[in-house]
Amino acid sequence: MPKQLLCKENLAWLGSAIVIFVVCSLLMNAGIINSYYQITLYNICINIILAVSLNLVIGICGQFSLGHAGFMCIGAYCAGIVTKMMPNFGGFMIGLLIGFVISAIVALIVSIPTLRLKGDYLAIATLGFAEIIRIVVQNMEITNGAAGLSGIPRLTTWPLLLAGVVISLIVVCNFTRSAPGRACLSIREDEIASEAMGINTTRYKVIAFVIGAILASMAGALFACNFYVINPTQFTFNRSIDILVMVVFGGMGSMTSSVIAAAAIGVLNMILQNFSDIRMIIYGLALVIIMIFKPSGLLGTREFSFKKLLNRRKEK
Amino acid sequence: MEPILQVKNLTKNFGGLCAVSNVSMKINPGELIGLIGPNGAGKTTLFNLLTGVYEPSSGLIEFDNDGKKVQLGGLKPYKITAYGIARTFQNIRLFKTMTVLENVKVAMHKNIRYGTLAAIFRLPSYYSEEQWVEEKACELLKEVGLYGKRNEQATNLPYGEQRRLEIARALAIQPKILFLDEPAAGMNPQETAQLTDLIHRIRDKYNLTIILIEHDMSLVMKICERIYVLDYGKLIADGNPEEIRNNEFVIKAYLGEEI
User: How many C-beta atoms surround the C-beta of residue A247 within 10 A?
Assistant: First the structure.
């Protein structure tokens, strides 16, 4: 193992992940996080994975995709079908892997023609593809059509969920801070210059899209094994928009902000549960206000970094 | 000597407009060539054809790749760049919100030998390659005098430094041929003088063939060994600065017909 992996910064991240894990586990055991709060917590974790993976496509690579729910749908159904046949951890893993493979293949097929499009056109094309996925699922025998799957074993546990969040954050952050990640950033900044600098822009757009799709299918699998029931109406255009809102709300291109936005929106949803009539109004209003006063999102492209924090302390 | 780049009867039509018409050029290794002409003469279009932004309507672009002839016409820009042909842009096209250092690193992409999986799993090849990239990028920034600003966002640099960063970024490709599109545009005389030095220095140090578009005639006449003149998409003259200065077609193109 390269020794750079054990630097102070990485150890700090590892430490904070362990702290979050232990604290939440204890609170759950002590009953302070009751089953009602637990649903919110689980929802937030799934949304973090979705927001981070979409942020890779939109914020880092600059490709406006509105089809994220489609890949989540693939992951959810793969995990749901397999775990119904094999209701144990092994079954979940197999379902997860099948979901990865199918969503990667679909992403590849979708992206090669559509990523030639730009801006609004790409958004509409990806939206169309996500709807195709949903309609196909709705009309297949194995997915039980419009009724959906029910009685999916509840295999999503807190350690598994946190592991999913950590893995997706590591994958996206490691990717961003590397040569392929820089290539994606340069595509976002200026596609013509990027190509003139020797970057095969189509290739890197496809790579970002496929990684995003695989992570979304992971979120889908965790989702399916958490809620017993899945049906095609859970993966409509609205779901894609929900994820998009988190990305835009936080700040495109910043993973920290996606995590915070997913958490904030999760908590907001919980608080406003009893005011379901005005919930969407407040939600929409918040978005309008943010877009007017801070169009780059809450955090813009800033990232939280232990490295900076440690260096600052050293300077003092 | 075999020319490193040979252009034969190159033509580009945009609908009814013939932006570049029947242009033929021969460029020898190590030459410093100027490309001049009045506004709208087709200079940048010619650059865009040579670097793959546009596909030629007809004609050939032949590049001598270490003794092997390669046709560049119709290739994608990133493939042309991979042969060692770099460019800068007339309207600066830096990666604005990336740092100065990252801008240079992006251009070193084709020489980085680790893939997406090595990046995600942080394999040893990632660390060794990134270290090399960092050193090389810093070295290039020192060359153009931007090392002290390596962590600033590219968009925050003053205009002249942005131009220099574009040159550093093009050098990071490790080119054989460098196309400079109006490198001195908007610069004051002092900055232009610095730029002239820089162009000379990098040509000798990296063994470059340089082709530049420029409107600043003092710069062109001072550094270019040979000059091509375009007017209305046609090549009207070529020769050394002295010949160009006295060429009647060139004078006519710039100043108009004698009455």
Answer: 27
